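Note to self: keep these together.
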Amino acid sequence: MRLETKKKLMDETAIKRTITRIAHEIIESNKGVEKVALIGIRRRGGPLAQRLAKKIEEIEGVKVPVGILDITLYRDDLTTLASQPQVHRTEVFFDINGMNIVLVDDVLYTGRTVRAALDALIDLGRPRCIQLAVLVDRGHRELPIKADFVGKNIPTSHNEVIAVMVEEIDGTDEVVIQEIFYD
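Structure:
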């Protein structure tokens, strides 16, 4: 199997604009940021949650709590990932009880990652509500999960992949669509 990049969908500037828009939508939807916390799904959801928190602080002058959630042990495909899956640390160092939690991820696809994240989050406490923010929604849902805040809707086929790259992990900010080829 090999991946070939077909098209760049978002560059650094487009991602910055999208983060700004989603930050405004979170503020508006929650009528401010009192009792709002952001939790990014580990890997790329973490940096996106940090960026959203920074933008919200710029807009509102209020620092919102930010955490990172590792969902490895909650995945329904855990046995197919590896014989020894790599588990990372969940970094949520605040009480989520009664909070409006905004779960942040890079791409919403089947909904299975979000389902696993919901299970992991509920093990930490009982939030007042959980909202979902994603940079890209590519469709093809297998579970009844819908994002509250979407950066960009990009319809895809099953033989395509949306690759989100963030400076903090990948050294660049961009979103590309790649095609899968089975050789």
